[in-house]
Design a protein that fits this description.
Elements: E1 17-21, E2 24-27, H1 28-46, E3 55-59, H2 64-75, E4 79-82, H3 89-99, E5 103-107, H4 108-111, H5 115-121, E6 125-129, E7 135-137, E8 157-162, E9 172-176, H6 177-190, E10 198-201, H7 208-221, E11 224-227, H8 233-240, E12 247-250, H9 252-264, H10 267-277, E13 282-285, H11 292-302, E14 307-312, E15 316-320, E16 334-335, E17 340-344, E18 351-354, E19 364-370, E20 377-378, H12 382-387, E21 389-390, E22 393-403, E23 406-412, E24 417-420, E25 423-426, H13 427-435, E26 440-450, E27 454-463, H14 472-484, E28 495-498, H15 512-517
Parallel strand pairs: 1-11, 3-4, 3-5, 5-6, 10-11, 10-12, 12-13, 13-14, 27-28
Antiparallel strand pairs: 1-2, 6-7, 8-9, 9-20, 14-15, 15-16, 17-18, 17-19, 19-22, 21-22, 22-23, 24-25, 26-27
Length: about 525
């Protein structure tokens, strides 16, 4: 191959709109030409004909310049290292150092946050003034248009994405062009992407959900990506109901906020929003477990059964509810095309199942996956990479059970699978129940070390606005007797905290270590 299929759009797409951002439409021809210009500037700045795997960090808000920069780094032979606008300086510098970035690119005020780190490390910083039609500052003049771009092979490394860091410092997951393309083609086929689609993009662009699922897939198919300029529930409802959008992807927190905005709206607005959203082709939820009440309420007001799927930074997307067919609340469906899955009993390493037909109903085990989209390894961490695989299978650390042909995630063995009084308990199961109480907006269940029980089941609860009580003692008095009627005694929370919100990362995932810290001080 002369380059990744994604960054070589067919000439007949030149006049098609690729990106809508800040009120401007940018065609595939614009994207192709602008990224080629930036490739030549990158190469001239480095004084080489091929970046040959050099890491280039880039920081900017979602929009056209982000896509241009991503494509340019790939076309120049570099490894793209997207940085998060939401991260504090310390975390940005950690990624820059861990990836050993050879250059940094920034756009606008957000991008200028990494000028200091660039000076401190003596590496080039290139500024893109995205407020002035992409004026370049800090880039050298490009080499001749006739200059040959690097020849890329499928095996070349392409991107480093950093894990959430829930089990330690974030690790860089390295993927090749072939692995990214395998991920893309699996989803394009499974979710029926076409050139007629337009996705409203509201996701962060330093995680695989926002980068591959919601950006690379539509661009691979010749579709249009519309950036919002920041998530606002009412504005998002209006765009979803406009008739222009065909696909929407979000995390459960976003759907919960949209539901609250719908509840707060007037009758005529509700009718317009519900009718308009009902016309979308596909709506997807991921990156965290979708609460069943959210799934059911969304279907009630829009007619859409959200498609829930399962993925990780290291594997891309592994499982999905079907595009056609039943989408079951509380499940993540079945393996996507090209993905092999097996369940393994963690304590013994015994393989319980590989494939739906071989599974023994009722047994649970760790999900282990293999396929062409699985990452190459953790950047410069050979020991951790080796530990992440078992006989060529990636160990996800997530436990699941197969129920009537659909996989249901029980949770991470180290976070969401608790052991109390000799019982193995799913934190996710308890959370789903607590969220069904009308006074509970959200909650997180964790295990706290206990000399008698091993782990003490503990629940942090976010009450609904206006609901009472709003103290930890009050929450315990309200929910404990209610939960006793619905849970086995060994599953009952033995400690409660009332909180204004749960600690989350940029993708909306609850940070369980931070939740545990809420209970470390003993009784409130």
């Amino acid at each position: 191959m002369t380059g990744p299929r994604l960054v070589q759009p067919p000439r007949e797409w030149s006049a098609r709109v690729a990106v809508l951002a800040d009120g401007r439409a940018h065609t595939y021809g614009d994207l192709d030409a602008r990224s080629r210009l930036r490739v030549r500037q990158l190469l001239a700045g480095a004084g080489v004909a091929d970046l040959d795997g050099a890491r280039v960090g880039f920081l900017m808000e979602p929009g056209f310049e982000y896509v241009v920069t991503q494509w340019a780094i790939w076309r120049a032979g570099g490894i793209a290292v997207p940085l998060s606008p939401h991260h504090p300086g310390r975390e940005l510098e950690y990624v820059i150092d861990d990836a050993d970035c050879a250059a940094l690119i920034g756009a606008g005020e957000t991008g200028r946050r990494i000028t200091g780190p660039a000076r401190k490390r003596g590496i080039p910083f290139h500024s893109v003034d995205d407020a002035n039609e992409g004026t370049e500052r800090g880039f050298p003049p490009p080499v001749s248009d006739a200059a040959q771009l690097p020849r890329l092979t499928a095996a070349r490394p392409a991107m480093i994405l950093y894990t959430s860091g829930t089990t330690g410092r974030p690790k860089g997951a390295l993927t090749t062009h072939a692995q990214i393309e395998a991920h893309i083609t699996s989803l394009v086929g499974a979710w029926r992407w076409t050139r007629d689609d337009r996705i409203l993009h509201v996701l962060p662009l330093h995680h695989t959900h926002g980068i591959v699922n919601a950006l690379c897939c539509p661009l691979y198919a010749g579709a249009t990506v519309e950036f919002t300029g920041g998530f606002d529930p009412k504005a998002t409802w209006d765009r979803l109901a406009s008739g222009d959008i065909t696909v929407f992807m979000a995390v459960p927190t976003v759907y919960a906020k949209l539901l609250r905005a719908w509840d707060d709206a007037g009758g005529a607005t509700r009718t317009r929003w519900s009718r308009g959203v009902g016309a979308l082709r596909l709506m997807v939820s991921g990156s965290a477990a979708l609460p069943v009440p959210v799934f059911e309420r969304w279907e009630e007001i829009t007619g859409h059964r959200l498609l829930e799927r399962y993925g990780m930074t290291e594997i891309g997307m592994g499982l999905s509810n079907p595009y056609d067919g039943e989408r079951r609340a509380g499940t993540v469906g079945q393996p996507l095309p090209g993905v092999r899955l097996r369940l393994v009993r963690p304590a013994t390493g015994k393989v319980l199942a590989e494939g739906v037909d071989a599974f023994a109903p009722g047994e649970s085990g760790e999900i282990q996956l293999r396929g062409p989209m699985v990452f190459s390894g953790y950047w410069r961490r050979p020991e951790e990479t080796a530990a992440a695989f078992a006989d060529g299978w990636f160990r996800t650390g997530d436990e699941a059970v197969l129920e009537d042909g659909y996989y249901r995630i029980l949770g991470r063995r180290s976070v969401d699978i608790l052991k109390s009084g000799g019982y193995k308990i799913s934190a996710v199961e308890i959370e789903e129940l607590l969220r069904s109480h009308p006074a509970v907006r959200d909650c997180a269940v964790v295990g706290i070390p206990d000399e008698d029980w091993g782990e003490r089941v503990s629940a942090a609860v976010v009450p609904e606005p206006g609901a009472s009580p709003r103290t930890s003692d009050g929450i315990a008095a309200l929910l404990d007797p209610w939960a006793r009627e619905r849970l086995a005694r060994y599953k009952l929370p033995r400690a409660w905290r009332c909180v204004d919100d749960l600690p989350r990362n940029a993708m909306g995932k609850v940070q369980k270590p931070a939740v545990r810290a809420l209970f470390e001080g003993g009784p409130p």
